[in-house]
Amino acid sequence: MAGNKISNKYPLRLWTIMATLWVPLFSFIAPTKANEIEFNTDILDVKDKKNIDLSKFSQAGYIMPGSYTLSLHINNDDLPEQAIDWLVFEGEAQDSRACLTPEIVDEIGFKSDIKSQLTWWNQGQCLDISSVSGVEERADLGISTLYLNIPQAYLEYRAPDWEQPSRWDHGIHGLLLDYYASSQIRHEDKNGTYNSINGNGTIGANVEAWRLRADWQARYENADMEKNWDWSRIYAYRAVTSLQAKLTLGESALFSDIFESFRYMGGGLQSDDNMLPPNLRGYAPEISGIAQTNANVIISQQGRVIKETQVAAGPFRIQDINEMVSGELNVRVEEQDGTFQNFTVNSATVPYLTRPGAIRYKLAAGRASSTQNKVDGPIFATSELSWGISNGWSLYGGGIGSGDYNSLALGVGRDLMAFGAVSFDATQSWAHLPHETNTQSGASYRLSYSKRFEEIGSEMSFAGYRFSETGFMNMDEFLEAHKYETEYGDSKEMYSVRFNQQLSDWRISAYLDYTHQTYWERPDSDRITFSLSRPFDWGSLRNINLSATAYRNKYEGTNDDGVYFSLSIPWGGDGTLSYNNTYNRNDSTHQASYYGRLNERDNYQVSAGTSYNGILANGYYSHQADTAQINANASYQEKGHSSLGLTVQGGVTATTEGAAFHRSGIMGGTRMMLDTGGVSNIPVKANGANTTSNYFGKAVVSDVTSYYRNRIDIDINALPENAEAISSVVQGTLTEGAIGYRKFDVVSGIKAMAVLRLANGEFPPFGATVQNDKRQEVGIVNDGGSVYLSGIQSGDKMQVLWDGKAQCELRLPQTMPINSSQGLLLPCHHITGNSAIRYQ
What we know:
This protein is mainly beta.
């Protein structure tokens, strides 16, 4: 089906021609019956006044039958641009209507009871909007938008940037490989040269809604000839959208709001908080600390690397860990001088609250494991649920059952509205160990609280307390006790808090992250990070920032304390000049640094200073290529060490629609493949830096979020000279792990003036449109058959449309003239029979 395509990216020439039509014509129009409009064509400065096609303007609100690329505006919500057909309504020649197909109606998101009342026309392919009272429809082709006003009571729940399940997209079939690789060469004055290579990533395949994934990690060090490669996890999962849940099969970890995490082989079905509106979701784990040098931070859980990233010297906060991760996380900060920090973080979860009348649940069964890739624990089954019993109150609980280990939990949560949210629960465990004659039992109690004090700029994102009796054991402790024949669980008390405070009057920001853990039979452990920062102006210098961060990491009886001071001054446009001072148990350093940004893809940092051992220097460079994120670093310490490092993070995605190398975000995570119609070097952008389409006109962006409405644009200011974007925006809401696919309407080629002539020597009528073989409109006919064509190629075949159908066909010469501004004379051959396409 062919027709007109209208877009808000139309060339200026279109609106110039439209203005020449509309301004004078509306001064000389007269309404007639049935809202028809007659035009006084005598006022037009056109030689052939009888050869004019103004049928599309002759009816008030009338839209010429055809296919139009429009965005759909529903109340205050927008759907992405898509082709919408305008068809003649039930034989009424002067009544054309938008054909809202069943697929479009699904995207609108009517409630099920309203959807059952809908009626259709055009053999059930188009919605009759009169079947729903109160719905209004209006099209504005000038801004490429179809407006639908629908009573909110008819629609499913909505929230900004969140889509209801009817709009979720499982994506297309495809294969993916994501990777992170780092290499370092370190020379120590006393011990020689060492090489190390780290890597981790995900290999996967998408089939319909299923995601098949295999996570790998590798490490090589020549110092102790350590080599290892592990398939840390092999599993499959899919979104069960009707249940707002996630089904997982294979190797996994129990991600529970009640019980501690442990590894198992089996299957699980759980409500997915990511599918909930943003205000009903939990908090993701957050990792903070201070790196003494350019460092590699490795975050793992029970031996599986969850995230690995490189950070510059100074304080760091890692906030992009998947919300589904819960339980104790192990953090290793590997410095360039060969030293490292190890500490644990208990990922905070907010109280287990559920909307009134709703139920959230988690089910799992399989065989537990104390180590990866081995199933050496008991067969078990577990379930937990939270029920919103009333407005503000939630009752939750769960249990784990296996041969020798059983656990039962019960709790209550309360939404305190203006005062935050709180929950309390108690867990009882019973464990029988093979070296014990009696069953060991004990209880654990937990109190949790969260609150955002917007009126005073504070956020208590999590505060919690847990006390465990000596006989209490979680499943992971049971597996360890079973393996190593220990007698009881070791955890005693744990206090944790994460707090942000904005003091607007003093322009001070404060941040606190604190965890204190006590044990029955070993030393306490602590992890605390506290920071203060304040921007200020000094003379002509603006946005100077002063900050201080202090930390303590008490781990296995050893204290690692440190303080970091920093003063930064904006300098040289996109640059920042800074001074920082670091104190810790081993050293004290003073450094001056300069951070510069060359463009949105490239930035660097250089620093020099002194320490106890003498002069030190560091350098860091980062480049966001289309195919990968590349970081290089170097450091030098007098009488100590020198090192060079390189990290590369990227991926490749292959589908039936094409393939592309790209930068990567979450390993094996959600991504969008963009198709620019075979045109290369088209710049596209989601949330990060631009990436350009490859030789085949394909690009992949991985900085998209599951279950959120993602908008991806063509950067029209950076388009190549020979390209023009007819539609430059696409949107999509993807399920977790999906490979989305969206296509931009891009015209590529030269621009040229031409004169079209019919076989009888006449010209196509004034206002006729020219389309290429992709049904893209590339020109509008002016007086005397003249037309300005854009995005054309040698040998292109095109059609000219008027009176609602394709009337004649033309072909461009195989060799285009060097100076196309002189104009082309193009014969247009009449189309007869089935070749003429008409919209009915």
